[in-house]
Structures are given as structure tokens and as C-alpha cells.
Write a structure and sequence with these properties.
mainly alpha
Length: 78
């Protein structure tokens, strides 16, 4: 959806994915959905919010041992 420029729908879908992953305790999926949401924020022109979101994600991913997600979040902030 984001690739087609429908950022609002993409964000809505990603937020629902995050909630579902939290509900079922699937941390990896939650972090991946958060990464996609942060990237979507950046692409949709909300770079300040996107950077802050990705920075928080990087900290959370690092704290839980998900180094690849943390590196991807750091790269997406640039």
C-alpha cells in the first residue's frame, strides 16, 4: 500500500499488525511491523516523527537481542 502511495491505509494496516503481534506475544513480528511503520512515516513526509519512532524501535530491538532489526531501524533513519 505504501509503495502505491496509499500511506494512510498502509499505516492503519501496520498498526493493526503491531497490535495483533503484541496480543499474541510475537515480538519479532511486532518489531518488523514497527520497522515498516517507521519507514512508511519517513516516506510519507513525516520525517521527524519517523526518526523518533525508528530511534525508539532501535533501542527496543537492541534490548531484546534483535540486532538486525536495530541496524535496519538505524539505516532507515538516515
Amino acid at each position: 500500500r505504501a509503495a502505491m502511495g496509499n500511506f494512510a491505509e498502509a499505516k492503519k494496516s501496520l498498526r493493526a499488525s503491531i497490535v495483533a503481534a503484541e496480543r499474541y506475544g510475537i515480538l519479532r513480528r511486532q518489531l518488523e511491523a514497527r520497522l515498516a511503520l517507521g519507514e512508511t512515516e519517513m516516506k510519507s513526509g513525516h520525517s521527524i516523527a519517523g526518526r523518533a519512532y525508528l530511534e525508539a524501535l532501535e533501542r527496543d530491538a537492541t534490548a531484546h537481542g534483535f540486532g538486525l532489526v536495530a541496524r535496519d531501524a538505524a539505516a532507515a533513519r538516515r
